Structures
1.
Amino acid sequence: MTDERAAWTGVVSERLRCCICGQSTDDASDYVLIEMTAPSAETRQWFGAHAEHVNGVLAEGFQVEVHMM
C-alpha cells in the first residue's frame, strides 16, 4: 500500500476509528468513510470503518467494495 492510500481520510481531517470494532484504521487497506445525513436538520455525521466489518452487519444483498485507485 502506498503512503497516500494509508493516509487517505476522505473529507475529514484524520482517519476515524472503526465504528463497529472500535479499533484503529490507521493501517487498514479496506478503510471506508460513511456519511449519515439528517435532511430535516441539515446535519452530517461521519463514521470510519473497516469494509469487512461493515459487510458483516449489512442486510443481505448489500456489500461494500473497496477499489484501490
2.
Amino acid sequence: MTYRRAVIPALAGGLLLTALLWWAGTSAQALHLPGATTMMGVPATVELDHWLAPWSYDPPSSAQLDAEAPGGVGGTAWIAGTSYLALYTTALQIRFAAVFVFFVLGALLLVRRLPPVRGRTAAALLALWAWGLVAGTLAVTVSAPWLIASGGHGSFRFLPQLASLIGSGRQILVPTALVAAVVTVLVARVTAKEAGPLAQEAVPARAARLAATAGTAVIALSLVVLSYQSVAAALQTVSPNIGLLSEPGDLLRQWLLLGAWNGPMGTPLGDWLLYRAADVLLLAVVWLSLRRLPGLLTRATVPAMAVGAVCATVLGLLASQLLRAATDGMGLRWGLLHLFAGLGGGVPAALTCGLVAGVAAAVTLRVAGGRTKTADEPEESDEPNGSHGPTGPTGPTSR
C-alpha cells in the first residue's frame, strides 16, 4: 500500500484518538459535582479522576489564577498565577497535538507495511492498538516539562517529577486506543481494496525463528536481568550531582525496566510461580509475534520490524497485566477500577527495549536469510532446467 492510501486511515485514527482523549479529559469535571460521589462511590470517583486528570484542561490548585506564587504577594502573586495557568494550558495543547502526530506517524508505517487484508486484519488491529498506547505515552513525555513548570517548582528534583508524570494517564489510553485502532483498520480496509494485489515477501522459517529469538532475548534482558530487585535498586539509586539533571534513577527505571521481581523470600513457592507466569506469558507473546511478523509485513524493513517489536512488547505487557489482574485475589475487594488500574504500565520501557529488539531481529533476519540463500545455491544449481533460483512461492528469495 502506498503512503497516499495509508495516510487516510492514519489521519482518521489520529483524529479519533485525540478527540476521545479530549472528551475524556473534559468529562473529568463531572466527577467534581456534588452527586458524583453519591452515585459512584468515593473510591470509584477518586480512581476515575486519577485516570482522567492528565487529559483535563481543569488546572490543579497550583496553577489557579488566585493561587499565590512562591514568594509573591498581591498583584505579583496574581500575575504569577496567570503565568502558571498559561503554562498548564500550553502543556495540554502540546499533549493533544503530540498524540495526534505520534499516532499518525506510527499508524502510517504500520498500515503501509501491515495492511489489514489477506489474513492480516487481527495483527494490524493489535499493532495499532499497542501503538496508540505508545503515542499517548510519548505525548505525555514531551508535554511534561511545561506541566512541571506550571506547578511553580520545576527546578526541584526535575527528573523524578518527569518520571512520575510519564506514567500518568495510561489507563484511559487502553480503551481509547482500541477504539481508534478499530476505526483505523476499518478505513484501511476500504482504501486497500483499490490498491490491487500487495507484494508479499517470503521469509525462511529458520531465519524467522532466529530473529524472534534474538529479539526476545533483548526483552528478556530487561524483564529478567535488569528488573531483578538488586539490579533495579542499583539503577534506581543512580544520582550524579549535575544540577537540574541529577537523580535520574526514577527515569531510568521507567525507560529500562519491564517489571520488578525477587526470589520467593517469605512467599509460598506456588504463589511466586503463579506471579512469574505473567512474565513467561509476556516473553511468549513477544516471541510468537516476532516469529510471525516478518511473514506478515509486505517488506521486513528495519523501521517496520522496530515498530512491530515495540507493539509486540506492549501487547505482551497488556497480556501479562490482565493475567495478574485475573489471578490477584485482592483486586475484587477494591472494585473493578482498582483491579484494572495497572493496565498500560511499562510502555516507556517497552518502547526502549522494543526498538532494540526490533533492530536485533531485523539484523538477524537479514544475516540468517542470507546464509540460508547461500546454503541453497549448490542444490539450486543442480536443477535439470538450469535455473539458478527457486520460482515457487515458498522459495527463500521469492517476492
3.
Amino acid sequence: MTAMDEQRERRPGGPPRAWGGPPMWRQGPPWWNAGVAERTGRRLPWLTTFVLTAFVQVGSGFAEHGQGSREQLTLFARLLLFLATAVLLLRHRHPTPVVFATAGLTLVYIAAGFPYGPVFLAVAVGCFAAVVAGHRRAGWGAVGGLWAGHLLIAHWLYRWLPPDDDGARPWSQEIVVAVWVVAIVAVSELGRVRREQWVKERAERAQAAERRAGEERLRMARELHDVLAHSISVINVQAGVGLALLDSDPEQARTALTTIKAASKEALGEVRQVLGTLRAPGDAPRAPAPGLDRLPELVEQAGSAGLTVDVTTEGAPAKLPPGADLAAFRIVQEALTNVVRHSGSRHARVLVRHERTVLTLRIDDDGPATGTDAGGSGNGLAGMRERAAALDGTIEAGPRPAGGFRVTAVLPLAGGAGASASRGPGVRTASQEDAHPAPQRDAHPAPQEGAHPAPQEDQ
C-alpha cells in the first residue's frame, strides 16, 4: 500500500478507516472481526465468557426456586455450570472440542436432576462458534446428541436418576425443546453465511485497494517516464552539441547550455507536480495537468534539439476531457522524443484531427533510424498504449511504406467510447485506411534502408 493509500485509509486525527469506512452491516461488528483475531491465538474472549458465566450462575439460582421438584443446586452443580461456560473461553481456538464439552457437561447436569435453566445457553454459544468457524457437523452433532440424550433421560433413564420422585417428561415439552434446537442451528447457519459474505467482501475490498495502488504506481511511473524521457532527450542532444562546439563556437555552446538549463528546470517542475500528489493526497494539484494547449511548447523544445515539427490541425478544436487531453499531450510528447532519440530525420509532422466522438493523432518522421537508444528504457510505446487503452482508444506504431516511422493514436471522447470499443482494439476507421495505409502494429521487420528497424525499444 502506497503512502497515498495509507493517508486515504485514515481520517485526520482519527482512527483507521475501519471505524469510518463501510457500515457495520457490510463488514461485521468489531467483536466479530476480533473473533477472527482470537482464532489466530492473539487473545481470548475473556469479557463475554465472564458475563455469560455470571448470567448462567445467577439464572440457575432463580430457576432452582421455580422448580421445586428438581434437585437443589450443590457445589457439584455449580462446578458443572462453571465448567460448561468456562470452556467457552477457547471456543474460537478449538470450536469442535468446546461444543462437545458444553453439550456433555450440560447433559451430565440434567442427568444429575438439577433444574433446567440458562445452562443451555452455553451449548447455543458453543454451537454458534463451531458452525460459524466452519465446523458445521460438529455443531449439529453436539446439539443433536444433547437432544437425544435428553430424550433418553426424560423418557427412560429417569427411573434410575435423581430426583427419586421424578416422572417422564410430557411430549409437549419435547416439541418446545425441538424448536429451540432447530432455532439454535438456524441462527448458527445464518451467522456462518453472513460471516462468509463479510470475509468475501473484505477480501474484495482489499483486492480493490491493492489494484488501485498498483494502478496508481503505474500511472506515476508512466508520468515520470514521459516527463523525464522528453527532457533528458533534449538535454542529451544539447549536451552533445555543447561538447562538440565548446572550443570552436563558444557562443553556440552557450546556447546549448541555456537550452539544457531550461529543459532541466521544466522537468524538475513537472516532477514536483507529479510527486506533490503523493505528499498531499487530499489537495488538488496546484498546476493544471498539461494538455494539447501546450503543443507549441513541445514544438519549441523539439526545435531546440534540432528537430523541426510541423503541426496540422483538422476539424473544429473543442474542449477535451482532462484525461483525453493529458493522454494526447503525453502521446505526442513521447512520439517526438522517440524521433529525437531514434531517427536520423530532423523533420517531423504532427496531425491533430478533431471529430465529434474521437480525437486522432498522427506523428510521422522520414527516418532513417540511427540505431542509438539515447538511454531508452523500452517503456515508451508500452506507456502510450496504456494511456490509450485507459480511454478505450488504440495506438498503432510501425514503419511507413515510404520510409520513416508513424505513430497513430485514436482516443474516444465523451460519448464516443462505445463506438471505439465496437471497432475493437487496433482496428482503424475506413477514412483512416483510405488516407493513411495501416502500419504494422508491433511489427518487427528486418532493418531496411529508409525505415526504422523494429526494435525501437523506447517506443
4.
Amino acid sequence: MNVSNKVVVNFLLAVSVVVIIVGYIQLNNSVLWGTEKVSEYMREKMQGSMDTSQYNIMLQGFIEQIKWSGSILLGLGGVCFITCMTLVMNKRS
C-alpha cells in the first residue's frame, strides 16, 4: 500500500469512527431530544396547548426519527470501519 492510499484509508477510518460516535450519541439521546423537539413544537405551533394522545403520537414520531437517523449513521460508520480495517489487514498479510 503506497503512502497516498494509507492516508486515504486512515482518513476514512477517522471519519467512520466519528460517524459511529455521532450515531451512538443520537441513539443514546433520542428520548431526551425527542421530548425537547415535541415541547418546542408545542410551544411554537400550538401555543402550549395539545391533547395528550396527540402529544404522545408526536413524541413517538420524533423519537423514532432520531433513532432511525442514529441507526443509519451507526450502521454506515460500522460498515465503513470494517471495510477499511479489512483493507488494512489484507495489505499487511
